Amino acid sequence: MNKSNSIMRLALLQLKGSKDKTANVQNAISKIEAAVKEHKPRLITLPECFNCPYGTKYFREYSERIPDGYTSQQLSGIAKKHNIYIIGGTIPELGENDAIYNTCTVWDPSGQLIGKHRKMHLFDIDVKGGVRFKESETLSSGDDFCVINIDGRKIGVGICYDIRFEEMARLYRNEGCEMIVYPAAFNMTTGPLHWELLQRSRANDNQLFVVTTSPARDTSADYVAYGHSMIVDPWAKVLKSAGVDEETLVADVDFSLVEQVRQQIPIFTQRRLDLYGTQRRAK
Ligand SMILES: O=C(O)CCC(=O)C(=O)O
Description:
The protein is of the alpha/beta class. It contains 7 helices and 15 strands. The chain has helices at 21-39, 56-62, 70-82, 166-174, 190-206, 256-264, 267-270, and strands at 7-14, 43-45, 85-87, 91-94, 100-107, 113-118, 124-126, 132-134, 147-150, 153-157, 177-183, 209-213, 230-232, 238-241, 247-254. The longest helix is centred in the first third of the chain and has 19 residues, at 21-39. The model has no long low-confidence stretch (mean pLDDT 96). Residues 8-255 form the CN hydrolase domain.
């Protein structure tokens, strides 16, 4: 990004997954190659669970160590090859004591791992007649926040269900973030109702960019993702939105909008912190 003109080019890769992990990762790599060639983005984002079918029965089998596993090594290599940042969607991570996490990795242009976020709020819901999912059957929850810095801009990372917890987004704003990136896979029950609403709400509440990257919709999968990867600006306008199939969504994000909206609607200086607050707690 050129700080003087405050523009950063993003490419969001909405990818179709399969049960073949190597094919999923290689699909991501070839779409990264194509996006770099055609659009020259500074930052590429990938979907939640892009190397594995989204289902609790798959997570252990597909899990890998970070950063030594196959998927990490591929992402590290391609980030370095093309001198780009990658917010690498999520993969099932094999962590300490054999615990499995739903984890996002962030890679810098030298191929270094500069951030890791383990999904903090596990997706355990049961909507009668709609979607039932219980990540906690096989996953453990993370308990660290993840803020990265790209060209002087702070970016917070959350994963899918994390977007429902407004305190987390507020905390990122309070820590100076101008964008939050959520790899995500909403579904056909909550997607139509809440997908855009939640993104516009988090953007509006916190006056920052919200970026989500979903898998493409596959109606033959166990879990049918909603699609519609999206970029919402700090005015809460949808800047760009994908359809449901595989797609590369490209946008030039202008960070000067962040300052503009924060000055014109100064809710963060008007908030009655003498009466209430949202702070990170010591663990
Ligand atoms: O919050 C929702 O409705 C969907 C969340 C989800 O699919 C996930 O956390 O993976």
